[in-house]
Design brief:
- Helices cover about 45% and strands about 15% of the residues.
- With about 325 residues, the protein is α+β, with helices and mostly antiparallel strands.
- Strand 6 and strand 7 form a beta hairpin.
- Helix 6 crosses helix 7.
- The protein is globular.
- The structure holds adenosine-5'-triphosphate (ATP) and magnesium ion.
């Protein structure tokens, strides 16, 4: 394979410049959310019966997999399930009211109520925080019921255990695991610019990369190779294999299901993170992965730098340069 024009080190440089959220920016966002968490703890120490019990940074900011053009942070607020309304339609206004009690500095205009989350916007940093309520009744591993954004269904899981799951994969492949996840997410983002209907959820990508890395199927320290291997796997396997992890349960326990894609939550063997994906969406992911795999292959065999860049731009977008 020819990597004269674009090889691992060129992808590393591009990722540093264009793909990854800079450490300093991540810190500004994390600090902002940590201040909220501290304020909630203060409020709780003064009002021990307050219904909001804990706040966790979740999602890519917590896992170190955020992209540079991040527009939202994820926060999970643990609410004591005995106090919260069981009807999800009432849950969000109820949560908004409790947040106003704990955070009097947050102005009403900063909070938008969505069907099953709240969005809090901070003008100073431009950060939008998606606040997801978790119905909690004291589990020591912070397992609780999150309300699905899309269906309103309650799903048992644990945000801190997800973060720990990712942390273990990062420790097994320092730098590279998170970088390959970010590059894959960046690929999705670029495809979506032209094809807004294309869907491939970040959490599913992370679990897919973890599944392949756990099995030693990825050469994670060579990014062109690792990306080519992931795309080749998607094209060949076409999501026929079930993805499940033995960290917290025996994968054999995963429910039988007719869902076209099965990528099970590492915490709950009854929660398929891909349950909403249709067969048409599965086929589209395969088609896009085939194109990306072909483009990388062509890039690696191209004889001129102009051709090499042209092929890489199909994968990593028009801003790709080397
Ligand atoms: N279907 C699901 N079941 C259980 N937990 C989920 C599910 N989807 C998301 N989560 C939780 O929400 C977190 C954020 O998921 P999301 O797909 O937004 O990824 P992300 O890492 O925040 O990526 P992005 O940078 O795109 O926001 C996950 O780490 C996980 O804890
Ligand atoms: Mg997120």
């Amino acid at each position: 394979m020819s990597v004269i024009h674009v090889g691992h080190s060129e992808i590393v440089r591009f990722a540093d410049e264009r793909v990854n959220l800079k450490r300093d920016d991540a810190k500004v966002f994390r600090d902002q959310i940590n201040r909220l968490r501290d304020r909630l703890e203060q409020h709780l120490s003064e009002h021990p019966d307050f219904a909001l019990k804990k706040m966790f940074l979740s999602g890519s900011l917590a896992k170190g997999t955020a992209l540079k053009l991040i527009n939202d942070g994820d926060v999970a607020v643990y609410v004591s399930s005995g106090d919260a309304p069981s009807d999800t339609q009432q849950l969000i206004p109820w949560l908004a009211q409790r947040l106003r009690q704990a955070f009097p500095n947050i102005k009403p205009g900063q909070v938008v109520e969505n069907p099953s989350t709240l969005t809090v916007s901070f003008i100073e940093t431009g950060l939008r925080v998606d606040v997801v309520p978790v119905l909690y009744s004291g589990d020591p591993n912070w397992k609780g019921y999150i309300v699905s954004k899309h269906t309103g269904e309650k799903v048992l899981t644990s945000i801190p255990m997800h973060i720990d799951f990712t942390r273990r994969r990062k420790a097994a492949n320092e730098i590279h695991f998170a970088q390959v996840v970010r590059l894959m997410k960046f690929w999705v983002r670029n495809q979506r610019l032209e094809n807004p209907e294309f869907r491939f959820k970040s959490f599913m990508i992370e679990l897919l990369v973890a599944h392949l890395a756990d099995r030693g199927l990825l050469q994670l320290d060579d990014y062109p190779e690792a990306l080519a291997q992931i795309f080749a796997h998607i094209a060949k396997d076409s999501f026929k294999s079930t993805i499940a992890f033995g960290d917290h349960y025996d994968p054999k326990l995963c429910a039988e299901t007719s869902h076209p894609i099965r990528i099970w939550d590492p915490i709950n063997h009854q929660n398929n993170t891909a349950s909403r994906y249709t067969d048409a969406q599965r086929k589209t992911i395969i088609e896009f992965a085939l194109d990306a795999g072909d483009a990388i292959d062509s890039a690696l065999h191209a004889t001129t730098k102009a051709d090499t860049l042209r092929y890489w731009r199909k994968v990593l977008g028009s801003t790709f340069d080397a």
